[in-house]
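User: My collaborator sent over this chain with a note saying "see what the structure looks like." That's all I know about it. Can you take a look?
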Amino acid sequence: MMPDFNPIHLLANVAGLAFCLMTPVYLAILILYYPNVNITTLRVTSLVGAIIGFYNMLTNFIMFPTLLWWNGVLHVPL
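Assistant: Without extra context I'll predict from the sequence alone. Here is the result:
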C-alpha cells in the first residue's frame, strides 16, 4: 500500500476506472457546462462523491491510519 512513482504508471494505470479518483474530474467538467448541464446528474454525482469521500476519510485516517494513510492522501480531492 505504499506509493510507486514509476513513470510508466502515468500511462498504464486504472485510475480512470475508479469512481473515487475520477469524481473531481467529472464534477469539474459538469461545472464548466453549468447553465446547460443536467442538474440532477450534477447533484447525484456530488452526493455520491461526498458519501464515498467521507467513508474513505473515516476508514483511511481514523480506523486504520498506519495501514491506509497513503490511500487516504489519494482520496483527499474527493
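A starting point for your reply to your collaborator: The chain has one domain: 16-74.
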